[in-house]
Amino acid sequence: MARVLATVLVLAGAALLAAAGGASAKQGVWSIITRPMFQSMLSHRGDSGCQGAFYTYDAFIEAASKFPGFGTTGDDQTRRRELAAFFGQTSHETTGGWPTAPGGQFAWGYCRVKEQNPTDPPYYGRGPIQLTHEYNYRQAGQALNLNLVGNPDLVSSDPVVAFKTAIWFWMTPQSPKPSCHAVMTGSWTPSADDRAAGRLPGYGVTTNIINGGMECGKGQSTDAAKDRVGYYKRYSDMLRVRYGDNIACKDQKPYGG
C-alpha cells in the first residue's frame, strides 16, 4: 500500500510539474513587463505637464489579457522584441520628451493622453496609439463591442479602453498592410511588391504601417522616425533583447505611395 501511495504521489507531482511547465510557457505579458519594469520604462508619465498618470499598469495588463497572442507569441526574444516595439511606437505617439529632458529624451513616453493640436474633431488622437479618424474609431469600437463613434472620449477617460484600442490597432492587419504584431513576431512574409518597395521584416515596417506616408521613403530618417527608433532602442536595452534588422524606414516606400 505504501508503494502504491508513493507511486501515486510521484505521478501527481510529475503532473503538477508538467502543468507548471505548460503554464510557464504560456505566461502573459506580465512576466516580461512587470510592474517595476512598467514604472521604470514610463517613469515620467505622471510628472507636471503630463497627463500620463492616466496610464496604469493594471489597465495595461487587463487590456493585454484580452489579446492572447500579444506579447506571448514565439520565443522569449521574440516576445520581448514585440513588447519593446509596441512601447516604442506608442511612446513616440504620446511623448513629452525633448533633447535635454531630465533622464533623456526617451524617458518621457506616455506623457500625453489626447492630441495636443486636434486636427479631426471629434475623432482626434487619443490613447497610447493616438487613435484618429472616424473609421478607426468605428472599426475599433466594432472589434471591442464599444460605441466609440458615439463616445470617442471613452478612449481618453477609461485607461483599459485606451490600451485596448492601442493593442487592437497593433494586432489588426489593414490590407495591404500587415499587422504590427505579424511583423514583429515573424509571421509576416513580404510579397514581391513589398521587397521591391524595400519593406523587409523589422521595426521599420511598423513605422511604415503607422505613419509611413509622412515618415518613410525620404532617403533619410525624419525627426519623428528617429524618435520612434530611439524609444525602441531604449526599451530593447531595458528588456535585454537585440534590435533585429531593418529598424528604420527611410528607404522603404510607403504603403499606397
From TrEMBL:
* Enzyme Commission no: 3.2.1.14
| Keyword Disulfide bond part of the UniProt annotation | yes
Tell me the leader sequence span: 1-25
Iron-sulfur in keyword set: no
| Residue ranges constituting the Glycoside hydrolase family 19 catalytic domain according to the UniProt record | 161-171
* Alphabetical list of InterPro entries matching this protein: Glyco_hydro_19, Glyco_hydro_19_cat, Lysozyme-like_dom_sf
This chain's protein is named chitinase
